[in-house]
Structure formats: C-alpha cells, structure tokens
Amino acid sequence: MPVEVAIYAKRNTARLNYTLGFVFDELFQIPWTFYSDRDAFEKAEAGIRINYSSQEIRAAYRIHPHELLFETEIFEQQITKSEWETLPVFFTVKARSELPFDPLAATFYCISRYEEYLPFVPDLHGRFPAEQSFAFKNDLLKRPLVNEWWKAISAKWEKAFSLPSIPTADFRFISTVDVDNSFAFKGKGPVRTLSATLRDIYRIDIDTLRRRWRTFTGHEPDPFDNYDSEMELAEERGFRLIYFVLYSELSPYDRNISRFSQTLRSSIRHIADFAELGIHPSYRSSLEPERMQEEHRGMEEIARRKINLSRQHYLRFRLPQTYRSLIELGITDEFSMGYARATGWRASTCTPFRFYDLEVEEARDLIVHPFPFMDSVYQDYLQLGPEEALREMMLFAKQCKELGGELVSVMHNRNFGDLLPEAKGWNECYHRLLDEVL
C-alpha cells in the first residue's frame, strides 16, 4: 500500500502549498493532504503525519515553523549556517521540534530564489553573481542540499512511523547543447568570410585557412557541424537531447550566422526533425520581451512546430521579469538555472521545480531545470581542462543518482569539433560522462 502524508498547519498559504507540492509531488512522488482543522487532522489516516505548527499533537512528527512561509513580504532574511547530523542547515528554530531547523522554509528560500529578488550588485552582464549567493559564501554551492535534507528526514520518518521505505523520484539525464554559432565557416556571408580569411592570412593560420576553403568547396564538413553524429548517439543510447539555438540579430554578444540565412534555417529545421529544439533568447532579449517574442516566433515558423523549451544566451535573466516573458510565449520548461562563472547548484537542488513568482505570490506553470556545470565555465573561468572537469562532473552525476535527481549537462556544439584549441579533449570528456550516467 503506498505511503500517504497528512500535514497540519495553522493555515495554508501560497508559499506553503508550493513547497509541500515540491517536496511530496516532486521529491517523493507520494500523495499528501493538507489540514488546517486540527480535529480533522487527528482523525486522518496516513502513513506519515506532520505537525507544522507550534501546537502539541499526539502521534505526529513536529516541525516547528519559521515565519517565512506565512509572510507575504520580501525582505532580507537573517539566516546563518548551522549543522544537523553532519548536514549544513539554516532557518534554525529554538522551539520544541523534531528538527533543529525548518526544512520547508529553507527549501522555499532556495527554490524560489528568494535572494535574487533582493538588492544585489549585478555582474558585467547584469546577472546575479554566484559570489553573492548564500550557498557560495558558505561553501555550499556544490551540494544539492534540499535533496540531502529530505533524504535524511525521510529516514527519520521511516523510523518514527515504522515504514519499510519512502520512495524517491528516479534519476534522469538530459543532454543539452547550446548553439551560439551554428557553423564555423558556412553561412557567414561574404563580408564576414572575407574578414575571417584576411585574419587567417594575417596570423599565418594556414590550417584554418585550408579548412575554411575545403568546407566551402565541399571537401570536408564544417567543424561545428556535428549534429547528425550527436543525434545518432542519442538515439542509439536512448538519452534525451535538446539543442538551444541562437536566432537573433547580429550584435557584439550574439554572433550566430544571419537569421535570414538559408543555411541557418535549414540547420534549425533539421535539428527540429531529429532532436528537441529550444530557443536560446539573445543577450538583449532578457529585458526586451518584444525581441524575445520575435525570436521565438521566427524559430517556430522555421521549425514548423511549437517550441516550449528555452535557455537564455549568456544565462542572462532577471527574476521575475524574464520568466514572465517566457510564460507569455508558451514556454513550459526553462534551463537557465545555473551560473556562468561557477559550477554547482544555483537553487541548492538537483530536482526540477515550478517557478514561484515572489512579487505576486503565485506558483506559475513554468518548470525550471537546474544544471550544475557548463563546459565554458570550466574553460573560461575555472581554467580547468576536460580531464579535471570530468572528475567534478562525475561527482554531480553521483549526487543525482543517489538522490533521484535530474542531471542536465550543458555543452556547446563548438566543443564537439576539433577546430578550436580549447575544444581539445571535450568530445571525449562528454562521451565518458555518458558512459557514467547511462
């Protein structure tokens, strides 16, 4: 017989309901019922009975609530790191409770990205910096703490309620590829091609010059054109593969081939036919909804199908504005929840969660998929080669497997080729990661 959960609290709120839904629907995937009537709760039959209040209730597991889930304002929270059974915790409580902290309040703080609604000093690209997060400051960024807390708590419930085991979600793997530049040489147009050719000559880069013209004459494939091999690999090994393709006007930070190029349009259509396709909203789009809308509409017209997946170019987004814009477009799944300059779990969880709009106190129909690493972070900021990076990737994979999480890998199509010196070894690294997770 499946385990059922009964939860009592003095009143329900949007924050509390959202958090309970995440814990029991997503982490444990077990049915639950909320009670604000104490008599009804005491009569309820359930395998797990949770008393989330300051009251004493017999035969119930008591978690003393922090006020966070009963508030409707956004303000700086006074939180400090503590420890419970070797696990770092915060939102500690001093009142009588089975736990020395409020895991529901702590979970909400993490997955709502509460701290990103508070004033912060943005980085060069207007993003929330990893260095200003509570997790980074307390050396917790590499851990999916939310999942760790609830795994430890579920063990307590098994003992308290004499349960054989409490199920958790199954491990999932998603391979995602950002296509900032669809091709190294093809489709660049005469001006960009001539400029690049002159640059090759000036640098005496004979190898690149030779490969450029062999590509143009059809004697070898474009170095970035690895789509077919990757899609065949996904089909052969049975994993989910998503491409996020940049389709925008040319700008200093948006450098794909022209969106009017037939070469780009053919590539987008080909990807859509054999893999999942997502939009990769341009650098300027995060604060310009009309630009995002134009790019999305154009991609759908080319692909001839609805596109409901997205990841922001440069991971440039602001909460809640960017997510609201995506929802308006019909985007259902968002994949930007990670850092561009650091690895780790930005929301302290390896499980997808619904976007909670703190400004209007509402859970929205947008699923946020966190990711722990991206190849360019290792290359550009951490200065790690593929071998060192792989060791950390394996640790993230192990966490997800043990906790029933979702591992989203983020690579760039340029790193599957051999044109760029910094791409050396990354294709092999990716294949070794697949061997570990599949």
Task: List its salient traits.
438 residues, alpha/beta, 4-stranded parallel β-sheet, 36% helix
Describe the structure in your own words.
Helices cover 36% and strands 16% of the residues. With 438 residues, it is α/β, with parallel strands linked by helices. Strands 9-8-7-15-14 form a five-stranded parallel β-sheet. Strands 2-1-3-4 form a four-stranded parallel β-sheet. Helix 13 (386-403) packs parallel to helix 14.
Write the layout of secondary structure elements.
Layout: E1 5-9, H1 14-27, E2 32-35, H2 38-43, E3 48-52, E4 61-62, E5 82-84, E6 87-89, H3 103-111, H4 134-137, H5 145-160, E7 172-179, H6 189-202, H7 206-216, H8 227-237, E8 240-245, H9 262-274, E9 276-279, H10 289-303, E10 309-310, H11 321-328, E11 333-337, E12 353-357, E13 362-370, E14 373-374, H12 375-381, H13 386-403, E15 406-412, H14 426-437
Parallel strand pairs: 1-2, 1-3, 3-4, 7-8, 7-15, 8-9, 10-11, 11-13, 14-15
Antiparallel strand pairs: 5-6, 12-13
Helix pairs in contact: 1-3, 13-14
Low-pLDDT runs of 5+ residues are none
Strand content: 15-25%
Which structural class is indicated by helix and strand composition? alpha/beta
How many separate helices?
14
Note the run of SSEs as H and E: EHEHEEEEHHHEHHHEHEHEHEEEEHHEH
Cross-sheet strand order for the largest sheet: 9-8-7-15-14
> Which word captures the global form?
elongated
Distance between the termini: 31 Å
Using the CA coordinates, give the radius of gyration. Answer: 24 Å
Portion of residues in helices? 25-40%
Major β-sheet annotation: 5 strands, parallel
Global mean pLDDT: 94
Please tally the β strands and state the result. Answer: 15
